[in-house]
Design brief:
Layout: H1 7-42, H2 45-68, H3 72-91, H4 99-110, H5 114-117, E1 138-142, H6 146-158, E2 162-166, H7 169-178, E3 183-187, H8 197-207, E4 214-218, H9 223-231, E5 236-239, H10 244-258, E6 264-268, H11 272-284, E7 288-292, H12 298-305, E8 309-313, H13 321-329, E9 339-343, H14 348-357, E10 361-364, H15 369-391, H16 401-418, E11 423-429, H17 432-439, H18 441-458, E12 464-469, E13 472-477, H19 482-498, E14 501-503, E15 506-508, E16 512-518, H20 526-542
Parallel strand pairs: 1-2, 1-3, 3-4, 4-5, 6-7, 6-8, 8-9, 9-10
Antiparallel strand pairs: 11-13, 11-16, 12-13, 14-15
Length: 549
């Protein structure tokens, strides 16, 4: 049977095609360089400087691009010749004694055998966390105490997970043969088992092609057990009795890290072949990429694409990279976007000048695929974390007050244009002050986080969730009439009431009330829609709480 094409094979094929195209470009450009070198020999001094400047610019491009496409020696020779030309241009005159040797070197360089010179460019690239398909997350629990395991299974079910509980390693192993879960929860001490849960987890993770997120539960709270858990790759450690909402919060963090949207990268480079290669490599690493050849189009590209990283070539005609970076920095909305310069420039002083004007990093061409992906990924990751920190509530990870209110206005306008109804709901935790007074503010924070996670699990990806203030939440449901919103939120209300929280050795439950407003009843603006939802919430509170109106 013929081998089926894979994404990796397709990427390698596309990269090979780009290298072949670049080889054809070299076959055309190198003879032209030889002709320019010959004309340089016979030109007058003023014309020589003009021709030398043109030669320097071509050599600079080759120095940056050739090594990236696997032509390492050509790239190195181009860089050495570029340095000599730059030296003369900075002095404003050519050294007539050295010029014949320079022309000879340039002509030798231009007659290199392109096909035999190409080297193998390493295809190895780090794989950033891949976006996983949206589905009901499957969790396997290995816990020999049936009551604890079943309680955990039922509670995680209330959060919207598909959880399965196993008391014995043999049953757990058999389930793994049938289906791999999205995460593992394993007890350290398994009673009559021949090995500890951590020892089993270590061998299990080694035999899996890719380790699974692992949370550890135990009665032990000593350093040695913590250290052993870290060494087997645990992402969470919980002592019994386990606060399951806290455990679920850790699961949510694990999955959020895995399923993040692809990073958005804008490449601005007048060298189309090189930009195409960078784009292909970054797309192969699960990033969204746009390429811009004309710097004048930067405003439209930034507004439409909203990049999380900008890659700028330093030397472009009409507008240099540092100049374009300063234009980007004029807009306050784009101050947080990292700018990475890509250039064959190796002079540290010039690099520093570019960074001082505007920019965050300087990468010297040629750059390997691996280094390119790593550099862009690390910058994009940090930029997104900063953006989330500024726009999201630190306790819940949901949108802040102003941002979720803005979503109400956006959804109202969309509903008015499309004619499809949208609903807005306000939720409030009942008697929340009593929770803080009786169990402390840490327990209160756990309750707030649990509701935030429950909303994330139970609602759609298109829905917007925000912490409106204190223990109050705001939910925006596009394309959702009021009767449907009532069904969805009432189920969330029931699930929330079934959660059990632990604080100071005590166990307690909490309820919520909610009010819904819909665009089915005409609203002049977002404020009116919010006011109606608030009145419905007020009615639920005064109607006895633990209900949705």
């Amino acid at each position: 049977m013929a081998e089926q094409p894979t994404a990796a094979n397709e990427l390698a094929h596309q990269l090979q095609l780009l290298s072949e195209k670049f080889a054809e470009r070299l076959a055309e450009e190198l003879p032209e360089l030889a002709s320019q070198a010959q004309r340089l020999h016979t030109a007058d001094p003023q014309t020589q400087l003009q021709q030398l400047r043109s030669l320097r610019d071509q050599l600079h491009k080759l120095a940056g691009a050739a090594g990236t496409f696997g032509f390492t020696n050509i790239g190195q020779h181009a860089h050495a010749l570029e340095q000599q030309a730059t030296h003369w241009l900075e002095n404003g005159r050519l050294n007539t004694q050295e010029l014949p040797a320079f022309i000879d070197q340039l002509q030798q360089f231009a007659t290199q055998d392109v096909q035999s010179e190409q080297t193998q460019n390493s295809p190895a690239r780090p794989k950033p966390p891949q976006k996983t398909e949206a589905h009901m997350r499957c969790i396997y629990i290995l816990e020999d105490e049936a009551s604890i395991g079943e309680n955990m299974r039922l509670t995680l079910g209330n959060f919207g997970y598909h959880a399965e509980h196993f008391s014995r390693i043999a049953d757990f192993d058999a389930a793994l043969q049938r289906r791999l879960p999205d995460a593992l929860i394993i007890d350290v001490n398994l009673g009559d088992a021949e090995q500890t849960g951590l020892a089993y987890a270590a061998t299990l993770q080694q035999r899996l092609e890719q380790p699974l997120p692992l949370l550890v539960i135990t009665t032990k709270n000593d350093f040695a057990t913590h250290l052993e858990a870290v060494r087997v790759g645990a992402m969470g450690y919980f002592t019994k009795p386990v606060d399951i909402p806290q455990l679920e919060n850790r699961l949510e963090r694990c999955f959020a890290h895995q399923q993040g949207e692809p990073y958005r990268v804008l490449i601005v480079d007048d060298d189309r072949d090189l930009a195409s290669r960078y784009s292909l490599v970054l797309r192969g690493a699960n990033m969204q990429v746009e390429v811009l050849e004309n710097p004048a189009d930067i405003f439209a590209a930034m507004s439409r694409f909203n990049p999380e990283v900008v890659l700028l070539d330093v030397n472009m005609p009409d507008c240099t990279g540092p100049e374009l970076a300063q234009i980007i920095r004029f807009n306050d909305d784009w101050l947080r976007v990292p700018i990475i310069y890509l250039s064959a420039e190796t002079d540290i002083t010039r690099q520093m000048k570019a960074l001082i004007k505007a920019g965050d990093d300087f990468v010297t061409k040629p750059i390997s695929d691996n280094a390119l992906v790593t550099t862009v990924f690390s910058r994009a990751q940090r930029a997104r974390l900063l953006s989330v920190a500024l726009s999201r509530d630190s306790l819940t990870g949901l949108l802040k007050h102003a941002d979720i209110k803005e979503q109400v206005g956006i959804e109202l306008e969309r509903a008015q244009r499309s004619g499809k109804p949208a609903s807005v709901a306000m939720l409030d935790i009942d008697f929340f002050k009593k929770v803080n007074d009786s169990y402390g503010h840490v327990a209160g924070d756990n309750v707030i986080r649990a509701l935030a996670n429950l909303l994330r699990q139970r609602l759609r990806r298109v829905d917007s969730l925000g912490r409106y203030g204190g223990e109050e939440f705001l939910v925006v449901l596009p394309d959702c009439p009021a009767d449907q919103a009532l069904i969805v939120l009432d189920e969330i209300r029931q699930r929330f009431a079934e959660l059990h929280f632990i604080a100071g050795g005590s166990e307690f439950s909490v309820t919520l009330s909610a009010g819904i407003a819909s665009t089915e009843q005409e609203a002049n603006d977002a404020g009116e829609l919010l006011e109606r939802a608030d009145r419905a919430l007020y009615a639920a509170k005064h109607g006895g709480r633990n209900q949705v109106r």
